[in-house]
Amino acid sequence: GDSVTQMEGPVTLSEEAFLTINCTYTATGYPSLFWYVQYPGEGLQLLLKATKADDKGSNKGFEATYRKETTSFHLEKGSVQVSDSAVYFCALSGYNQGGKLIFGQGTELSVKP
Amino acid sequence: KAGVTQTPRYLIKTRGQQVTLSCSPISGHRSVSWYQQTPGQGLQFLFEYFSETQRNKGNFPGRFSGRQFSNSRSEMNVSTLELGDSALYLCASSREGTETQYFGPGTRLLVL
Prior knowledge:
The complex is a heterodimer of chains A (113) and B (112).
Chain A: E1 3-6, E2 11-14, E3 19-21, E4 23-26, E5 32-38, E6 44-50, E7 56-59, E8 62-65, E9 75-77, E10 86-93, E11 102-103, E12 107-112
Chain B: E1 5-7, E2 10-13, E3 19-24, E4 31-38, E5 42-50, E6 53-57, E7 64-68, E8 74-78, E9 87-94, E10 102-103, E11 107-111
Parallel strand pairs in B: 2-11
Antiparallel strand pairs in B: 1-3, 3-8, 4-5, 4-9, 5-6, 7-8, 9-10, 9-11
């Protein structure tokens, strides 16, 4: 069935370090891909999305490119801040998934000053 | 524009009781989905409602049910609560014809 796999956390970085969180997927059809972020005690916030192959989603310095050939949607940021500490979820959704979001297991990021 | 709101934010119940959670979508959004988040199982889809009709359902027992009203507000109900129902319940809304879902802050349910 459809699934999303993320790199395991926690990921611990120093402030201003480069961030990559890997995400790969298995899906039928042509789903949209998403990154959501969850801060402690809160719900999910949409970080960025891409709706078709080779699209790049970007927001707040984060970027991810929809790579159909490698079925990947890796999240990157050039210089992380302490305020980026959160749990990041990769997800997919599309017609073949009945519109529901299928999530990865989440990757916890901790940024130290 | 106001975001998705959920009430209550926190609930404590005992086994065997039932609970009703409420969700108000973003204005203009007619689709509402519910998800359960637990440390062990992660984020799992419960069901989706559109125009007062359940359009999709996840793999949860019949104790979990929901409904949607004509103003798109939605409720979910869990009957005969079990310890394993302790979780963060998240509601999300989306505009018709789009796949992007916007989440509320969640209701944290603790079953004792």
